[in-house]
Design a protein that fits this description.
alpha/beta, 10 helices, 18% strand, globular
Length: 272
């Protein structure tokens, strides 16, 4: 691992499945980043050709930015497997995991670079939109203005759930002093060193169906002496509304995560 003062390459790993309209907003947000030393790895759980068309369009729009498209056949909800696929393809020393319906502000990459720390998983925040705003954004009827005033207006209309993540409270010494519980993870916005991700065999691909693969990952990282640091009031994303996923696997997946905590397990199971 390089010294944190170095300009290390970052890989933003974007997981997606058949939400090409939302993905376009996410990729356009990445194109607009103020930090240019990163690549984008779109890791795709079996989307149709519309997703590829969006990626190809963004490649033409930003030829200097490296886009990689990793695709796997869709066999149900396999977020754990698709994240591993993206991490494996990543060239960066540092990985930022971002969901394909979470739009990053222009300082998203530079903020994660600034708040990164050795042997640490950094967990950011999200602002949720309602269905009306999400539909207007993907249709181009609304534009995102990354200002507190604009977000306050959206909150006044009840289009978003909060504006507090826009507050920037810089206190890096305090942020790095404290380690948080694995339960604090937000799977749509988190970052860590690739070496730490590989040190626990990444996500556990036995997690199939919605739920708790991110909690299990955080727990095993914690078991492996990786700290879990808060990115609150530093890093956030705008999470576009989507219909709820089936929760039929949630209880079973939660039990697997609990077993990782009880057993102090570090490595992901590979027997699927």
């Amino acid at each position: 691992m390089k010294n944190l003062s170095d300009n290390f390459l970052i890989s933003v790993v974007v997981s997606t499945y058949d939400r090409h309209d939302a993905l376009r907003l996410v990729l356009e947000g990445l194109i607009a980043q103020d930090d240019k030393n990163f690549e984008v790895v779109i890791t795709d759980d079996g989307s149709d050709d519309r997703t590829k068309a969006v990626i190809d369009s963004c490649r033409q729009q930003a030829p200097a930015l490296q886009f990689k498209h990793c695709w796997q056949k869709h066999e149900g909800f396999r977020l754990a497997a698709v994240r591993n696929r993206g991490a494996h393809a990543a060239a960066g020393e540092y990985l930022i995991f971002l969901d394909g319906d979470c739009v990053p502000p222009p300082d998203f990459v530079s903020t994660h670079r600034r708040i990164s720390a050795p042997r640490a998983l950094v967990v950011g925040q999200r602002i949720l939109t309602n269905k009306e705003l999400a539909e207007q954004l993907v249709a181009g009827q609304q534009k995102i203005e990354w200002t507190r005033k604009a977000f306050q207006e959206w909150q006044r209309k009840h289009w978003i759930n909060r504006t507090s993540p826009l507050l920037h409270l810089e206190c890096p010494v305090v942020r790095r002093m404290f380690s948080f519980s694995p339960k604090s993870i937000r799977g749509c916005n988190f970052a860590l060193w690739k070496s730490d991700y590989e040190g626990v065999n990444g996500c556990d691909e036995n997690f199939v169906g919605w739920g708790h693969e991110d909690l299990d990952l955080a727990q095993r990282l914690f078991n492996n002496k990786v700290r879990i640091l808060s990115g609150n009031f530093a890093s956030f994303v705008l999470h576009l509304w989507h219909a709820p996923q089936s929760r039929s696997s949630a209880q079973q997946n939660m039990q697997k995560a609990i077993e990782s905590r009880k057993s102090s397990r570090v490595k992901a199971n590979t027997d699927r």
